[in-house]
Specification:
The complex is a heterodimer of chains A (437) and B (126). With 437 residues, chain A is mainly alpha-helical. In chain A, helix 6 packs antiparallel against helix 8, helix 11 packs across helix 12 and helix 16 packs antiparallel against helix 17. Chain B is elongated, with a radius of gyration of 18 Å. Chain B has 5 helices and 4 strands, in the order H-H-E-E-H-H-E-E-H. In chain B, strand 1 and strand 2 form a beta hairpin. The chains are: A mainly alpha (437), B alpha+beta (126). At the A-B interface, helix 1, helix 6, helix 8 and helix 10 of A face helix 1, helix 3 and helix 4 of B.
């Protein structure tokens, strides 16, 4: 009996993937989406270590053993994770890249309860599971691949997640529709509920309750379907539609929906997966001239220096070492390494991301009375965005408050040049001049 | 048993058992901590708590001491964070008298008070 079970266990996990194209496609889409999600966390890195206060996800006894997180530390981990996600999406060898990514994500998530997003916890689990599949199978380790059993483990994990999600909804407050009703805020959903309520002649809450019960049933069926390959042709469109509807309803769940939709490639119809799977870059080669690796590492290091943050050389050094370790020795691999780093650097420079990272640090430090830290942060704000009126005014006020009115005045003058006669800027300038007298 | 099989078994077992903590081992004094339990969109997620603190008889504005992101977790009734906030205040105010009321409004309208301002929390802090 035990021998039979052991044999079935081994047969299940050892069996090759029925449609290998799915795995390459999942890798491309999932890590691409994860790079985007990770990049969006950059702006929140400034929260970490504020006031040297932290509560980790570890049990209280172990919490004390951890060093307090810092904003630059989180920045380093997040930027590196983003770069590694892109490298894995573009075919980097998984043997080192994937465990390194799992380590970065685990540290950023488990280090502080500031990150309590369930999808970030799921991403830690996904990368840990796939790391196991990259490290614990000799052939995968040799080829830099992720062994197919890792993706089977993901399917099991997703099934378990849906099962628990359904269990959580076996609650009178969910089944009655009260909980879902409180979370539905988009206008079109409200209008639809109202129309259905009128048509059916029932209370609007009854319509929501029917929807809530449907969600419970669907999640329970999804748990079963993820473990039943025969159901995958049905599961894929239903699952994608389910997560798209969560997104359309604006249910405040971050990028959970996007990441889940990319994971649904694991149950995508075989013909579609075969067609789209051609887009997935193959895993980079293991042998070739080292010059490509060295060249890529040098360019990636230079790109690291071009990040908009006041990052230290530790990040640049980490990127260089990782590039040397995970890049295949070929011109294509070198180009992909450079492209990944360039995308992360480009994303960091885009919009107001870097400026807001410092603005949030400065704003928090100011509220808590840590004025030198606020001055340092707002100095970075105006360095990154010299034409940012509010940043100029705030820096002027802060410098005046720390008895540096002489340094404050140019910022007020610049603010008034940007918005002549603006009352806040005029008041800040007057305060600075008064402090000089 | 191979390392791979141990890894898979441990991974799946942890995922089957970890959410059980919320259902079977939940601390009644910490009813809203749903971490690692896959309880997306739950009633507990919708709870709204408010914390009023007094230090040595004067109102204490927590926002002047802690990042707003931590106060958001206090407003969700996350007691790990509340206890750490209390510990930090007591550490920086030796001999202080810290009183707090933490009350939470649940989705069905029930109000639950998790901390009453009847005792000096710093006297309880080691």
């Amino acid at each position: 009996m035990t021998a039979g079970l052991a044999e079935r266990w081994a047969t299940f996990w050892d069996a090759p993937e029925a449609e290998p194209a799915r795995l390459g496609l999942t890798r491309l889409l999932f890590f691409g989406a994860l790079a985007l999600d990770t990049g969006q966390q950059l702006v929140h890195a400034g929260r970490y270590g504020a006031g040297r206060f932290n509560v980790s996800h570890l049990p209280p006894g172990l919490d004390a053993l951890l060093p307090a997180p810092t904003a630059p530390g989180l920045l380093l981990l997040t930027l590196t994770a983003s770069m590694l996600c892109l490298r894995l999406a573009l075919g980097a060898r998984a043997t080192i890249a994937l465990p390194a990514l799992a380590a970065c994500l685990s540290a950023t998530v488990l280090w502080s309860q500031l990150d309590s997003y369930q999808h970030h916890y799921l991403m830690v689990l996904v990368t840990v599971a796939l790391s196991g599949a990259a490290l614990l199978t000799p052939e995968a380790r040799r080829d830099g691949e992720i062994a197919p059993w890792g993706f089977k483990l993901l399917r099991a994990q997703i099934a378990v997640m849906y099962a628990w999600a359904a269990v959580a909804k076996l609650d009178e407050r969910w089944i009655s529709g009260v909980t879902l009703n409180a979370q539905l805020n988009v206008e079109w959903a409200r209008a639809l509920i109202s129309r259905l309520s009128d048509t059916l002649g029932v209370a609007p809450l009854s319509v929501v309750a029917a929807g809530a019960v449907a969600v419970l049933v669907v999640e329970a069926l999804f748990a079963l379907a993820w473990l039943t390959p025969r159901l995958w042709p049905l599961l894929w469109p239903l699952g994608v539609a389910f997560h798209l509807s969560v997104e359309a309803l604006d249910l405040k769940i971050g990028q959970f929906s996007l990441l889940m939709i990319t994971l649904y490639t694991l149950v995508m119809p075989a013909a579609l997966a075969r067609g789209l799977g051609r887009l997935a870059p193959p895993v980079e080669p293991t042998t070739g001239p080292w010059a490509w690796r060295l060249g890529a590492a040098a360019v990636v290091g230079a790109l690291g220096l071009a990040l908009p943050f006041s990052t230290d050389l530790l990040l640049v050094g980490l990127w260089v070492v990782l590039t040397l370790l995970i890049t295949g020795p070929s011109p294509t691999a070198a180009a992909r390494a450079v492209l990944s780093a360039a995308l992360v650097v480009g994303l960091s420079h885009s919009g107001e991301l870097a400026r807001d990272y410092y603005r949030f640090i400065g704003g928090d430090a100011r509220v808590r009375g840590e004025l030198p830290a606020a001055v340092a942060a707002y100095t970075e704000v105006v360095r990154l965005d010299p034409g940012y009126f509010s940043g100029r005014v705030r820096l002027c006020q802060l410098l005046t408050a720390v008895d540096r009115a002489q340094d404050a005045l140019p910022h007020c003058e610049e603010a008034l040049r940007l918005m002549p006669g603006q009352p806040d800027a005029l008041a800040a300038e007057a305060a600075a001049r008064a402090a000089l007298r | 048993m191979r390392a791979r099989d141990l890894f898979i078994a441990a991974f799946l077992l942890s995922q089957l058992l970890l959410p059980l903590r919320w259902y079977a081992l939940r601390d009644p004094g910490d009813p809203y901590d749903e971490r690692f339990a896959w309880r997306m969109f739950s009633p507990e997620r919708m709870v709204r708590c408010s914390a009023q603190a007094q230090l040595n008889g004067a109102p204490l504005e927590l926002g002047r001491r802690f990042h707003s992101a931590w106060l958001t977790l206090v407003e969700r009734g996350r007691m790990d964070v509340v206890h750490a906030v209390v510990d930090r205040i007591c550490l920086t105010e030796p001999g202080g008298d810290l009183r707090m009321r933490l009350s939470c409004l649940e989705i069905d309208g029930e109000r639950v008070t998790l901390i009453e301002p009847t005792t000096n929390l710093c006297a309880e802090t080691p």
